[in-house]
Amino acid sequence: MKKAPMIVMLTAPYVLFGLYMSGxxxxxxxxxxxxxxxxxxxxLYAFFLLRMGCNGKQILFWCMLLKVCYIPIFLLxxxxxxxxFAVMIxxxxxxxxxxxxxxxxxxxxxxxxxxxxxKENRLPAKIVAxxxxxxxxxxxxxxxxxxxxxxxxP
Length: 154
Prior knowledge:
Blueprint: H1 4-22, H2 28-51, H3 56-69, H4 71-83, H5 85-88, H6 92-119, H7 125-134, H8 140-151
Helix pairs in contact: 1-2, 2-6, 3-6, 3-8, 6-7, 7-8
């Protein structure tokens, strides 16, 4: 049951992108609201994982998995934006919000995992502080998540 919210978070961007590519504009506003709700709930769920007794390495694993699995959706958005640049101009704001929701919702897992690893003495304090900052930058967040998961002591 602990994994269900993360699995929903993992699939939500792909479902939204699939709806957009299908051209079904009738459900688009509801889909955007549902996507935002899933991402916000998922971001808050990272803090509940701390209270449910997950250790830092487990939370960092989910952070890393979410960030790595989101790479294809970012590439799809980039490629579609290049091919349909003139058509994409009206939805630039939506894409910015979409990207920021993905970044912030997964960064909460990284922050929670890093704080827990710091408390459990799995990572040094300097590494924790630096990687918390890196969690807020595109591309650096993925590298930070992989590094922290690999370096956190068992």
